[in-house]
Amino acid sequence: MNLSTIVNKHIKTKSFWSWGPLLFTGFYLLPTIFNFSQLSVLNISATLVLYIAFIVLYIFAVNKKQGDVTSLFIAIILVCVCASFFTTGTSTLFGFAAYIAGFSFIKLPKWVAISSVFIGVLLSAYIADIHNPEYFLGGSLILSIALFSFGSAAQKEHIHKLREQESAKQLEQLAAIAERERIARDLHDILGHSLSSIALKSELASKLNHAERYTQANNEIEQVAELARQLLSDVRSAVSDLKELNIHSQLDILQQRLISQGFDVVFKAQVDKLPAVVESVASLIVKEGVTNLMRHSISKQCEITISQTDEQLEIVITNQDKCEKVTFGNGINGIKERTAQLGGIVKINTGKSFDLNVTLPLLESRKELV
Predict the structure, then answer these.
(1) Which of 3, 40, 67, 235 has the greatest CB tally within 10 Å of its CB?
(2) What is the residue extent of each domain of the chain?
(3) Contacts 24+ apart (CB under 8 A), 269-272
(4) What's the predicted TM-score (pTM) here?
């Protein structure tokens, strides 16, 4: 956002500091009040009419966009000069004209505007019928400089606030993008594992059916239906962001699924109470790791170890198949991204076996939750 756009928004803002100081324009009327009995009706009427005209112009000026305020500002200066022929109280009005100069203009136009105020003060002091013009000149200039500075400071302060608001909006947009990516990863992790299980069981049920082993086929079909119901529940929970993954129940479910698929799996889990964010991420990491095992393991020999200390949670998933090269698909990339969000580390070792080692810090995660 450029400076002119920010100032346009600034000028349209109605705050106490734009309207409240108008109360002090009442000083303009003091000379008329003190000399009321000595003044003609014409003088009093002209003083009041010009005062009302000034207030109206001032209100329109602080409510106009930059660029439109110039003609109003000129009219304000002319009203001040004209009023000087009827009362010395116009020194107050010149001060408020100077506030408009500082409040509504930027860069070079700002200095042209305040110079116009000074010229108006000089014209009023020496052209209008004012006794002791030096006092009028001194008071007007001091007040104008003070309110010009105040108007400039008020403009800078509000521009700073508007820039902060723009930065906050950009952060909200980035947060929304990050949240969409997080939901996409959640759905991938949940759907990937469950759909893989459904596909495998459906294929098995088909083979059993062709082999006329109907009882076993029906059993597999029932498990497919159960998996589908569980998947629907998981998707609903993920989308509504109300699901809190419990790592103990997840490990039990995953172990049973691996065993049902003929895996020789060794589970070693020593997990105490975890911060919610770590438990959620750890559950999804293990789930994605098991999905990869079910997709790619040939020997169906695997080991899953989860250990916890006061500082960190370590997850090790080992596939005993020989592995020379790793292809980084959505699953592995999702694990790396989730781990990075908590400041953790992912290590992958290949060779005689495939080893996925994930370390999640607990202390940093707790700090984020405080």
Answers:
(1) 235
(2) 3-170, 261-370
(3) 269/304, 269/305, 269/306, 270/306, 270/307, 270/308, 271/247, 271/306, 271/308, 271/313, 272/308
(4) 0.44
